[in-house]
Amino acid sequence: MKFEILLLLIAVSATTAQKSFKNYKVYNVVPETEEHVLSLVGLQDSKGIDFWTDLVDVGQVVRIMVAPEEQDSFLDLMHKWKISSEMTIEDVQKLIDDQMRPAEKGARNVETFGWNRYYNVTEIYDWLDKLEYDYPNIVTVVTIGRSNEGKEIKGVKIDYKPEGREKTLIGMYEGTIHAREWISPASLTWIINEFLTSSDREVRFLAEHFVWYIFPVTNPDGYDYTFTENRMWRKNRNTAYARSCEVGDDMSNGIDLNRNFGFLWMLTGASSDPCSNTFAGPSAYSEPETRAIVNFVNTLKTQGELVYYIAFHSFTQLILVPYSHVPNNAIGQTEDFLSLFEIAGRGAARLEKRHGTQYRYGASPNVMYAMSGTSFDWARGEAKIPLSFLFELRDMGEYGFLLPADQIVPTSEELMDALCEMDIAARELGYYSGKYLRSKQAGETSENRRSPFPIDPLSLRGVMNALPASCVKAQIRYDEYKVFSVVPETEDQIQALKDLSQELLYEFWTDFLDVGKNVKIMVAPNRVKDFYSSLNSIGLRPDLNINNVQQLIDAQLKRPYNGRNTNSFGWNHYHNLEEIYDWLDGLADTYPDVVTVVVMGHSNAQREIKGVIIDFNKKGNESAIAMIEGGIHAREWISPATVTWLINEFLTSNDPEIRFLAEALVWHLFPVTNPDGYVYTFSDNRMWRKNRNENYSTTCNPWNDDLSNGVDLNRNFGFHWMGVGASSNPCAETFAGGEPFSEPEAQAISEYVTSLHDKGKFVYYITFHSFSQMVLIPYSHVSGIDVLQVENYGNLFEIAIRGMDKLKERFGTEYIVGTSQEILYATTGSSFDWVKGVAEVPIVYLFELRDNGTYGFLLPPELIIPNNLEIMDALIEMDKVTRQLGYYSGSILMDLQKQGDVEFWTDIVLLGEDVRIMVSPEVEEDFVLYTKAVGLNAELRIPNVQELIDAQLRPASIQGRNSGSFNWTQYHDLAAIHAWLDELGETYPNIVTVLVIGQSNEGRDIKGVKIDFRPENRGENPLIGMLEGGIHAREWISPATLTWVINEFLTSTDPDVRFMAETFVWHIFPVTNPDGYEYTYTDDRMWRKNRNPVNFTTCSNRDDLSNGIDLNRNFDFRWMGTGASANPCDQTFAGPSAASEPETKAITEYLLSLKTQGNVIYYIAFHSFSQMILIPYSHASGYDVLEVGNYGDLFEIAIRGAEKLKARHGTEYRVGTSAEILYVVSGSSFDWVKGVADIPIVYLFELRDLGYEGFLLSPEFIIPNNEEVMDCLVEMDRTTRTIGYYSSASALINSFVLMIAGITFIGFMK
């Protein structure tokens, strides 16, 4: 880095002639990160590099002129730093020549003065003298002082009524305080000429109603220097501070006059380095040019009412209003800021009409950069001139300071239009008559001075943050405020961020900070660079989430005009409190038998806390009750918008599921439980969070004392109050109040909740917040094993998970579920924790609604309805599960499992997942009636199980069982499969070896084949793959698939199949549970386990159920951890001990022996049904999937395989760990293979279908299933090769890379 920068410091020979900029180029670059900014700042002192942009900031265009000899190095650095660059000027000298040529060739006669070229200072001054001669009764030449080099600072006074005026109004225009900005004097000489010669009515009015003092060149030394020595010179020519500069010693010979004024001198955007273009001098007013302007302005103030001070610069097409140092409190010092803003806005709009040129307007920090010590800020702040502006003239950087002469006239024409319009606006606002001065003397401000031109504060683009009470009463604005995301990785970084939050310089949108958790921070525009520096110093890199907060606020406030009646209430915009309350009242009128308006209490400001009761059935104390709370945090507008949507749907929807939910409970819904705060977000500060309690008011500088005027209601409840995640500091967003329930709003909620217990069975309490897309379960201060402090935590978790799965189906929105401490932050004193912990309501949640931070609290109106649709889906599904779990009546599933003649085909019953239950004819009617009574929707999938069994068996009973008859149009019993394997050994003696790896409990062979096409030429470390089938007896499609794979490996001519078959030594076992498989043919088609009677016991359904062990729960990896049973009557009985079964031992011992024979790459087990590819480990989800070191590889391989599988017949498989997409389980074969045997590529396939036929898949589906599985295996092998698992070294490298990439899939898998 240092070496590369030194390349930019190569010396060039000096010249006594005017400096040539031949082949100098100008580039536009946009730093996107703080690292980019710091890198560019490091170039500012490099020779041959000239920054045309004063301030380098993230996201802002920086224009840089580069000398020819440095261009290669410069571009190399931009490439190295990954900063995009665009050349905008190919040859600076050519533009300079174009500017200078007319002046050199044209006659230097004052008579020819015009605006088709640029003039030097002598020519301009001569022309001013000529004007005095031509207009002796109007024009007076004025010299206000002299420069460092003794040149006159000359201008003109234009006064059409020198004999006297009833009231003398004065205006002053200042030009060319920055020497290289030639369009400035050109435009001012045009204005002088227009004031003297134009016949335009508006120009005449402006010219004649003021005494004008216009100074085209206030930096004559610098301006002259741009003609004689250096066209790009900016400062004056004061050599008193000369020093050696890396960019050239001459750079120190001057001071930036527009940083030398004594209003907040050297506060920001100025430099103490003489080598800098923004060197502000050794002290304020150190320069004679500055003093001349100041003294002259002070003299003018004694001669009349000095109304205007306007400075003209270039370039960027802006109209700036004071003040330039910060966008919030300092602007508040300008008590008529809104008027200034309006005047500038009207000027910009008028200017655009002439040539289509667009100017932006606002305070400098919001539209350009922060600065201090400027002339026009001084004019407003010290000289108290009411109308002070700074124009940045054409263009936007295409030519920059080198604007071609042919643009002088268009620039000046549109500027004249703007000045006329601004003057019209100023007259309308009363700045002429003296009203402004008199109103100030009388104590009147623009807060109580009505403008004749209506102002909509919400449409203004300026920033009005934290205005003192004496200033303009308008909503605080957040123009150019940005929101960043950071993820602290260490406790030190956490502490540093906490310290930063305590400084109150930035607004933390995230309440609580924790390692690895995203933190959202809003930053004022003038503090962005400091923010980056602060974070960089602690090793954090912020990501920009929101570029302009005010734009999102404006979008939220925008609404269609449709009046204020209840019929117009909708969800395409956000509604204020009055509109919501009017709508609620209207509902009671429209639905008098169903809706009752209720006021649960009053706020600090005595506003009603209003909601509605929706009761369709009027059951009184027998009713099930639900309560929904919204808007407890004021700025979370999506919360009331969601609650009002729910109310409307409950009343109007025809959807049968919504109707059931609406009518099954008595609903108590409160859209806004913090009415004072909510109103304040509309009237004053969109980002307000707390209530409005001013009893704790204190000083909160430097941010905003108003921050102390409120309490966080969601920290004020009396459950573990002030335990964690709450503050005792009134300035904090999480200030919990002086004591629990100190706030009337919290008291109202708690008393209302308590009263509901006497009115029925209180089932639900749900509160809506934003943002983060989460469903939080009580309690918010617990995690790990402590979550079980909530006695029904398991139910709450499953209900929420099921709801979020359903929510995702609509738009793909992903929510995560857990306690606040686990997935957000630890906190106490919240409403929903109190409801659970004290009021003891069973089903309690807190929703953090959309989004994940892209818009945060400022969710655009167009996302209201999508948010609401998916929330309704979630609530319906959550209610279904709640009913299934018996919260309305009894425990449904437990009751069902106790019934005889009912067999669960689903191993693990999870909320939100289909449960398949086989029912005997004897109890079918009772079963249907029972499920319907408890709110379960029992859908018939298979009307007659035996018909499917017969269909599976019929071909086998017709065709012979000899080895020659083996095919895949039927299922084959164990004897047929084993006979066919023996036949293969005889048919392919040099390739196929029949294997017996052990015997079952009943002494049957566990038989398979070894396929090796190169038994004599494999080397010392052959590649090995093992395929396992039929470990669950009833899953017949599993052996049918593996026999197909064997056949394809031996007979297929497909080159990919051939490659896979011949590259590996394959060990394939179609039936690893021979006793159970045989039993499905002879006794019970639905048998699952092996046949081991040693654990025989009496079972409620039938005793035979205990005569077996689930082999896929018997492996010694996390045995009996979860998803397995110690009850022999259960289908998932894991045995008396790990690896207790001979089948399990045979598989484990054989696989371990294979590891001594070569490089075992694959182990794949085949099951049915569900159409999934499962990745180890089956107990892991979320970030825990990374317990598998090559999870990223496994996920990528499986995804590629599933996509290929789908291409054949359109069958869709899901991919993930069992815990994520099926159920949590332990003790399985493939988990053991990965976790103990350490085989790299391990999967479990759940084959067709999704439950239509389940374990009884019809024979006609065998071949389609097998074809697509073969396609999948080939594609997975291709990906495995690509990643490098055939070569162990490359495999390790690629595995590491894709493991990191795999982290990106975790959110998807959730």
From TrEMBL:
<dbReference type="GO" id="GO:0006508">
    <property type="term" value="P:proteolysis"/>
</dbReference>
<keyword id="KW-0964">Secreted</keyword>
<dbReference type="GO" id="GO:0004181">
    <property type="term" value="F:metallocarboxypeptidase activity"/>
</dbReference>
<keyword id="KW-0862">Zinc</keyword>
<keyword id="KW-0645">Protease</keyword>
<comment type="similarity">
    <text>Belongs to the peptidase M14 family.</text>
</comment>
<keyword id="KW-0378">Hydrolase</keyword>
<dbReference type="GO" id="GO:0005615">
    <property type="term" value="C:extracellular space"/>
</dbReference>
<keyword id="KW-0812">Transmembrane</keyword>
<dbReference type="Pfam" id="PF00246">
    <property type="entry name" value="Peptidase_M14"/>
</dbReference>
<protein>
    <recommendedName>
        <fullName>Zinc carboxypeptidase A 1</fullName>
    </recommendedName>
</protein>
<dbReference type="Pfam" id="PF02244">
    <property type="entry name" value="Propep_M14"/>
</dbReference>
<dbReference type="InterPro" id="IPR000834">
    <property type="entry name" value="Peptidase_M14"/>
</dbReference>
<feature type="transmembrane region" description="Helical">
    <location>
        <begin position="1283"/>
        <end position="1308"/>
    </location>
</feature>
<dbReference type="GO" id="GO:0008270">
    <property type="term" value="F:zinc ion binding"/>
</dbReference>
<feature type="domain" description="Peptidase M14">
    <location>
        <begin position="573"/>
        <end position="882"/>
    </location>
</feature>
<keyword id="KW-0482">Metalloprotease</keyword>
<dbReference type="InterPro" id="IPR036990">
    <property type="entry name" value="M14A-like_propep"/>
</dbReference>
<keyword id="KW-0732">Signal</keyword>
<feature type="signal peptide">
    <location>
        <begin position="1"/>
        <end position="17"/>
    </location>
</feature>
<feature type="active site" description="Proton donor/acceptor">
    <location>
        <position position="392"/>
    </location>
</feature>
<keyword id="KW-0479">Metal-binding</keyword>
<keyword id="KW-1133">Transmembrane helix</keyword>
<comment type="function">
    <text>Involved in the digestion of the blood meal.</text>
</comment>
<keyword id="KW-0472">Membrane</keyword>
<feature type="active site" description="Proton donor/acceptor">
    <location>
        <position position="1246"/>
    </location>
</feature>
<feature type="domain" description="Peptidase M14">
    <location>
        <begin position="970"/>
        <end position="1280"/>
    </location>
</feature>
<feature type="active site" description="Proton donor/acceptor">
    <location>
        <position position="848"/>
    </location>
</feature>
<keyword id="KW-0121">Carboxypeptidase</keyword>
<keyword id="KW-1015">Disulfide bond</keyword>
<dbReference type="InterPro" id="IPR057247">
    <property type="entry name" value="CARBOXYPEPT_ZN_2"/>
</dbReference>
<dbReference type="InterPro" id="IPR003146">
    <property type="entry name" value="M14A_act_pep"/>
</dbReference>
<feature type="domain" description="Peptidase M14">
    <location>
        <begin position="117"/>
        <end position="426"/>
    </location>
</feature>
